[in-house]
Structures are given as structure tokens and as C-alpha cells.
Amino acid sequence: MTEREKLLGGLEYNSRDEELIALYHRARALTKSLGALDSHQADEKNRLLGELFGAWGEASWIETPFWCDYGQHVRIGKNCFINVNAVFLDCNTITIGDNTLIGPNVQIYTPSHPLKAAERFTGDPDFPFRTSAQPVSIGNNVWIGGNVVILQTCALPISGCHRRHPGQRAGAGAAMPGYPLVGIGRYRRAGGKGAGWLSLRCGPSFANGRSSANARRAAAKRLMTVPIGTASTFAASR
After folding, report:
1. Is 113 an annotated catalytic residue?
2. What CATH architecture does domain 3-183 belong to?
3. What value does the mean pLDDT take over residues 155-170?
4. I want to staple 84 with a disulfide (CB 3.0 to 4.6 A). Which of 63, 146, 169, 211 is the partner?
């Protein structure tokens, strides 16, 4: 099994693999060419995006700058609009349905690492850290507001409910209006005491599935008191 097959299969893989590095450099060259285009060069932009992505739908548009890891694992449907500064870490597949709107600074992360540093790093310079990835799938007619971060294996509102998926899906017609973070992650209080798990939603209610204003304020307070630089302060859960 190749490292790319492991990557797409959700298994631990070596990101320094030659095939993956070649895909990375290919994506860098194509996104550099995209960024250099004039805004009137729509035909050339569509040609480059069709070459970069695994699928590129008719009448879709991406504002630059745009970043992805490999590009080939991204599939975008028809009539989509993706605003500036999108970051797609497509270490597994990212599928976006038709008629989807994505606001500025939206980030979609398929990869994850072990939360404990002792498990995360291998000590092998040819395979320095452990990584695995799960797919993200977004349905048709979805609106994702600015600054949303979608993590692999996280919790998103799907048809109004709060669920967890091994490969995350946002259902058709869902709206995610610009909340800063989406997912299930680990938090640590200021001073390094009182670690625990915090479940966030990208809808108007979050914090362990509770919908009260007090719960939302409590979740926001926990996030604001996270000390910068603490290892595993906030990461996707497995």
C-alpha cells in the first residue's frame, strides 16, 4: 500500500513520501499561477482550477489567494463561490456540493495528529510525526460564513441536529454563519489546570450541545483563557 493510499484510507501515513511531495509541489505551482492572474482572465483561471482539483464544477469561482495541500483530493460542484483566503488541507478528500457559498478565511482541515506529544513525534527524521486524515463532505445549497474552521471528525449541525461523524458532513441547505471555530477539541484553562473536552457548534448554540446564553458565554470564556503555546491546547478529537 502506498503512502497516498494510506492517506486516503484514513490510516497513519508519512507526509514526506515522494509521491505526496510531488503532488505538493504541483499544487504550489498551480496556485502560484492562479494568484498571478488578472481578474478578467476567467477562462485561464477555470483551466488552472480544472487542472488543480479532482473535480471543478461549471460556473464555480474561487477568489485568490487560495491554499490547498494537494488539490487532487478536492472536488467542487457547480455554481459554487469560495471567497478569499480559503485554506483546504486536503490530506483526505474534501467534497463540496452544488450551489455552496464559502465566506472569507474559511479553513477545512482533514488531517490530525495524536494529542500527546510523546505519541505525535516519532524521532525518525524520515517520518518525524504521525498523521492521519479523514474526509470532509459538504452538501448542496450550503452557506459557510467567514472565518469558520471545519475540522475532521468534528460536530456540525446537520438538518438542525448535533452529531459526530468519522468523515464530517454538512447536510444540504445548512447555514454556518461565521462562527470562529467548529469541532470537538481539547481545552486547558489558564495556568494549565483543569483540562477537559469542549464541543463546539457552528450554529447559534454550542458548548456541549446546550443552547442557553450562559452555556455560550461559558464556552467563549474557556476559549479566551487558553494559554498561548500550551501543547495540545485545542485539536481535533479522534
Report:
1. yes
2. 3 Solenoid (2.160)
3. 37
4. 63
